[in-house]
Amino acid sequence: MRVDARLTLPGVWELGRSVQATKDSDPVRKHSLISWNDSGELRVARIVPGGTVDPGRVMVGLASAAEDAGAQIVEHAEVRAMDFSNPPRLCVRHNFRGRIQEKEIRAGQVLLATNAFSLEMSGMRAAAVPKLTFALATAPLSAAQLRAIGLGSRRPFYTIDLPYLWGRLLESNAVIFGAGLVPPYLGAPSRFPLGDRSIKNAPRDLRYYDVRRGQSADRLRWLESRVRHLHPALESVRITHHWGGPILLTEKMRPVFQRHPRSEQVIVLAGYNGHGVALSAYLGTWAAEALLARRALPSWG
User: Fold this and answer.
1) Partner residues linked to 257 by β-bridges
2) What fold is seen in the domain 74-125+252-292?
3) pLDDT above 70 covers what percent of the chain?
4) For residue range 45-78, what is the model confidence (pLDDT) as tens digits?
5) Of 215, 223, 224, 227, whose CA–CA distance to 182 is shortest?
């Protein structure tokens, strides 16, 4: 698809605090470039294959490739309810230039690949737990600062014990740090009538979340304090951005990828447990093959 995702694959640091996670006899641990103060001494446990992409470029590139292949992307449209008839019927609310239009769409097949808050329609309310997770970005760091904190190699990192912490560099030399989970407010289901066989989608409008208040603000203050105490070079670093977003946690950390229990014509794909940037593209390709009857769904889904 020729998507310029700014993919880099330098490897990924796995960081740990415990003796079991980071044995002193391990040469990677012994010569760790990272030595941070975070509920104990946080050091490199091992290097694993991997790297980073620019999620914004991935999204734009995939959207462009989809349109080039004939797909139609309708922005500002919300599926409010679905009737599991044959064929399935979807009630869509579309905000077109300030005018609200409500339409019914009949589809031979449906792929439900929505965000972590859309659980009623996918039938996953009892099988998955939505959470809000948080991150912040620093101002660009100097080469000396990056060397001091051990990120001169530009490898991304994540911890293999708790409390969890992950991070990566941007092209500007700013660093993103992420951690923290809080339960989101899920709201009440919408009142969009479609009949007894339908499932109504609850509104999950993230525009109404304000990370400057409540538990979200507490978590971001906690994260910023952790970052400033990791290393003296980060103590007075300027924080330029704070944000949060939804993730969906599932049993055994396995994505949900299966036929909907109420219709063989509907496939559910969700629950990436925080790894959606990579898994949504990979499993989305698999789902397209399944819709075309070219590939079976996984046994673990």
Assistant:
1) 269
2) FAD/NAD(P)-binding domain (3.50.50)
3) 87
4) 999 999 999 999 999 999 999 999 999 999 999 9
5) 215
Cα–chain center distance at 204? 16
Half-sphere exposure of 255 (CA within 13 A, CB side): 25
Q: Is the peptide bond prior to 87 cis by the omega test (within 30 degrees of 0)?
A: yes
* 3.30.9, 1.10.260, 3.40.91, 3.30.70: CATH of 12-54+128-191+199-250: 3.30.9
Phi, psi of 190 (to 5 degrees): -70, 160
pLDDT tens digits for 197-208? 455 554 455 666
The count of residues in the chain is 301
- Among all chains, which residue has been given the structure tokens 């509907």? 266
The domains spanning 12-54+128-191+199-250 and 74-125+252-292 adopt the same CATH topology: no
